[in-house]
Specification:
Structural class: mainly beta
Radius of gyration: 19 Å
Distance between the termini: 47 Å
Largest sheet: 4 strands, antiparallel
Shape: elongated
Number of helices: 0
Helix content: under 10%
Strand content: over 45%
Oligomer: single chain
């Protein structure tokens, strides 16, 4: 199976230093795609949301990892 999407919920809000209100997100699971193109859901946690969770979650594309190292080519002979 291949991981396909992240399952994310909005758990609340917060304010930036400038006073702008932003949403707070929590990843609660993953959606996988099996060899037969069937979707599978793996829940890792239940969200704790101010006022109670209404049951809705969003699926977002996977983000590429920033662990790619840049190639460095120095022209300094040693």
């Amino acid at each position: 199976m291949k991981k396909f999407k992240n399952i994310v919920v909005i758990t609340g809000t917060y304010k930036t230093r400038e006073g702008q209100e932003k949403k707070r997100y929590q990843n609660i699971g993953s959606v996988f795609l099996d060899d037969n193109d069937n979707l599978k859901i793996k829940m890792d946690s239940m969200p704790l949301v101010d006022g109670g969770w209404n049951g809705w979650a969003n699926c977002y594309d996977l983000e590429e990892k920033a662990n790619k190292q840049e190639d460095r080519h120095d022209d300094i002979p040693f």
